[in-house]
Amino acid sequence: MFKYYKIFLASIFYVISIFFYNYSSYMDYKQKEIEVVDDKLKIGAYTVYNILGEDFFKKAINKDSISQEEDWENINKLSYYNNHANLAFIYSSIKKDNKVYLTSSSASKEELEEKSELHYFHHYEDAGESLVNSFESKEILYDNYTDKWSSFRAVHIPMTLENSQVIVISAEVSMEVFNKIIDDIKYKYLEETLLYLLLTLPIIFTTYLSIKEKTLENIMMEHEVMRSEKMAALGEMIANIAHQWRQPLSVISTGVTGMKIQKEYGILNDEEFDKTCQAINDNAQYLSKTIDHFSDFIKGERNKVVFDIADNINNFLTLVQGSIKIHNINIVLDLEENIKINNYPNELLQCLFNIFNNAKDALIEKKVENKYVFISSKIKKNHVIIKIKDNAHGIANSVLPHIFEPYFTTKDKSKGTGLGLNITYNLVTKGMDGSMEAYNVSFTYNKNEYAGAEFRIELPYE
C-alpha cells in the first residue's frame, strides 16, 4: 500500500511541476510578446519615414511648405499601412518655438471618408511627455499614456536630418489591443496546461497499472522514476519548441505580408521576391527539422544503432534552443567530425539534456552574467570522450562526491528530485556500457578566466 501512496505523491508533484513550469514559460513568453509589439511599433514608425522620404521632411518646416493635396496623399498612404498593420496611429512631428507640430499622420476611417481633418503642421497640444522629451534625449522612448481619446502604448524615434533638423517618427497601438494580446497569452497557456495534463493522464494511468504488476519494489520505483523524468523532459522540450517556432513563424508571416504590401504599391521586384521566398522556405525547413528531432526523442525507442555523435549533439541543441535563447546561454562547440558509434542515441540525448539542465540551473542560480556551456567530442584510443562544462563557478567540494547518488540534491525540493544525475549516470554506465565522472575546472576562453563544473562521458568506440 505504501508504494502506491508514493506513486500518488509523485503524480501530484508532477501536476504541480507542470503548472509551475508553464507559469514560468508564460512569464517569459509574455515579455517576448511585449517585445514583439514594441518591434511592430518601431517598424510602423520607421515606415512613416520610408513612405514619405527624407525630401518631405527637409521641406516640412512650416505651414505653407506642403499643399493640402499633398497632405491628403500622405494621409492616405500612412492610413493604408496603418490599417493593414493593425496600429492606432503612425505620425511624424517637429518641435518649433517649444511647441510640437504634426507633419504627417494616419487618419481614422471616418476622417478619410469625410476628409474632416488635415494633419499637416497641426499643433499637437496633447503631445505626451515622452514625445516632447524625445526631441532632446535623441533616444528611442516607449510610453503608456492616456489622452482625451483613449489609452495607448507608443514609441517615439528621434532622427536628425542632413540639415540638422530633428524630427520624431512615432507609432501607437491602443491599450485595448495591447491588453488583449497579453490576456490571449494568459488564456492560451492556461488552456495548454490543462490540455497537456489531460493528454498525460492516460500515460500516468498506464504507468500506474504497469507498476502495479511488478513484484519487486526496487524495479517498480526505478521504472516510475525513469518515466517521470522522461515526461518532465518532454514537458520542458514542448515549451522549448513552442518558443523556437515563434521567430520562424514571425519571419514567414512578415515576409508574406511585406510582399503583399509591396505588390499593392507596385514596388515588389524579382530580387526582393526571391529573397523573401528563400527566407520563408529556410524557416519552413527549420520547423520541419525540429519536428523530426522531437519525434525521434519522444518515441523513446531503445534500439542499438550506429549514429553520428556530432549529429546527436546538434539534435539535442535543436530541442533546447528555446531555453538557450530565453536564458541567453552561449554554446561553444568543439566536435570532432565523423565519429560514429554503435549505441543508444535516445539515451545519450537524455543524458545531454539532464547535464545541460543542471548547468543552466547553476548559471541562473549563481547569476552568472555571461553564461557559457562548452561541449566537445573526440576519439581517444578505443573510446569516444564527450565533455560538457559551464562557467557557473563549480560544485562545492563537499557536494561533488555525492552528485550521482539517488535523491541527492542541493536545490529546493520544489525544483529538483535529486534523480536527474543519478539516472544519467546509470544510463551511461549500465545502459551504454560507458563511464562518467564530474570535476571542477578552471580555464581560459577569449582571454577571460573562468571556473565551472565539467562532466566527462566515455563511450566505447569500435
From TrEMBL:
PROSITE patterns: HIS_KIN. Gene3D superfamilies: 1.10.287.130, Histidine kinase-like ATPase, C-terminal domain (3.30.565.10). This is histidine kinase. The chain crosses the membrane at residues 6-23, 194-211. It comes from the Bacteria. The keyword Transmembrane helix applies. It is an enzyme of class 2 (transferase). It comes from Arcobacter acticola. It catalyses: ATP + protein L-histidine = ADP + protein N-phospho-L-histidine. Residues 240-462 form the Histidine kinase domain. Its EC number is 2.7.13.3. SMART domains: HATPase_c, HisKA. Keywords: Kinase, Membrane, Phosphoprotein, Transferase, Transmembrane, Transmembrane helix. Pfam families: HATPase_c, HisKA. GO terms for molecular function: phosphorelay sensor kinase activity. SUPFAM superfamilies: ATPase domain of HSP90 chaperone/DNA topoisomerase II/histidine kinase, Homodimeric domain of signal transducing histidine kinase.
